[in-house]
Amino acid sequence: MIGLIAGVVPVFFMIALGYGLKKSQFLPDETWRPIEKLSINLLYPGFLIPSIWGADLGGGSAGAAAGAAVVAVLIVAALTLLAKPLMTLDGPAYTSVFQGVIRWNSFVFLPVIQASFGAEGLALAAVMIACIIPVTNIACVAVLAKWGAGQKAVTPLALVKAMLANPILLACLIGLALNFARVPRLPGISDTLELLGSAALPLGLIIAGAGLSFAEVARRKWTIAGTSFVKLIVMPPLMWGLCILFGGDHLAQGVAMLCGAAPGAAAAYLLARQMGGDAPLMAGVIALTTVVSALMIPVLLFVYHLT
Asked: Which is nearest to 106 in space by CA: 69, 74, 143, 75?
């Protein structure tokens, strides 16, 4: 048990390293965006495709974990929409709260899964990503289109194009297609993908740390704290409980639980900036959820291994 928790610690050390590198100006600011682009468009697909391609998806655990994640997101999204009239927030701020409670950072989630559950857990996690990315993106784009500053209605075709332009989603779909078609491992191609993928997780963590900004946390502490509470206190047991309800085994339950405990996604900041959301508020939510998740994940793993 101590070894499992200790295995998660390096994940957050890597995030802290990225934050320190950015703050110290070890690398110029303008270099981080190309590094992020390399990671998202090349390294992470190199990791995800072979992980899903070689996964054993014959049992019900993958479906239970993915179903739990999707249903939990839909429940929290619906409740957040119902609660909007009670919130004293303008439209752009509300969109950042909405993104903050349902989106999560796969850069952090996948290394935590690897450290906690190994290759079998990673395969389940990759399937969850393939299922949850379309749901969260469609919901967030729709909310931003309605309440973001200066937005026009988003057409279904534009939404589909945006989904298909997401390299992480595409990598998941390619991996699933290869898996379902029972395509055997291809020497050379598989090795190349795995070599690319070996760099994805550590570099992704450094990028996640470099993107943290705490400037807004103190100024809007109650909004950010409330959003973080839903994301990190409500979502993990909800996903865990739903996975049990859907018949997931112990491994699937653990992966679902950690999916709920993953911090806010850096992609949410970019979307807020592009579609008239409150980008500074979004940055604050991402920063606080990242710090709190470093405390929550060991606690959740301890509880999980008691069950």
From this structure: 69
Which pTM was predicted? 0.84
Give the separation between CA 236 and CA 221, rounded to whole angstroms: 22
Instruction: Tell me which long-range contacts 189-197 makes (C-beta under 8 A, separation of at least 24).
Output: 190/50, 190/53, 192/46, 193/45, 193/46, 193/47, 193/49, 193/50, 194/46, 194/50, 195/46, 196/42, 196/43, 196/45, 196/46, 196/47, 197/43, 197/44, 197/46, 197/47, 197/48, 197/49, 197/50, 197/51
In the three-class reduction of DSSP (H, G, I as helix; E, B as strand; rest coil), residue 58 is classed as: coil
Each residue of 255-266: pLDDT tens digit? 999 999 999 887
Beta-carbon count within 10 A of 23 CB: 11
Ordered by where they begin, the domains of the chain are 42-211+221-306 (1.20.1530)
Instruction: Provide the phi-psi class of 263: left if phi over 0, else alpha when psi is between -120 and 50, else beta.
Output: beta
Residue 100, Cβ neighbours under 10 Å: how many? 28
Amino acid letter for position 141: V
End-to-end CA distance of the chain: 12
Q: Are 141 and 18 in contact (CB under 8 A)?
A: no
Q: Which amino acid is it at 240?
A: W
One-letter identity of residue 148:
G
Decide if 253 contacts 305 (C-beta within 8 A).
no
The CA distance from 196 to 142, in Å, is 34
Question: At a CB cut-off of 8 Å and minimum separation 6, what does 249 contact?
Answer: 59, 61, 64
2-42 pLDDT tens trace: 655 666 788 888 889 999 998 898 988 888 889 888 888 88
State the helix-helix crossing angle for 2-23 and 189-210, rounded to 10 degrees.
70
What's the count of helices (H) and strands (E) in the chain, helices before strands?
14, 0
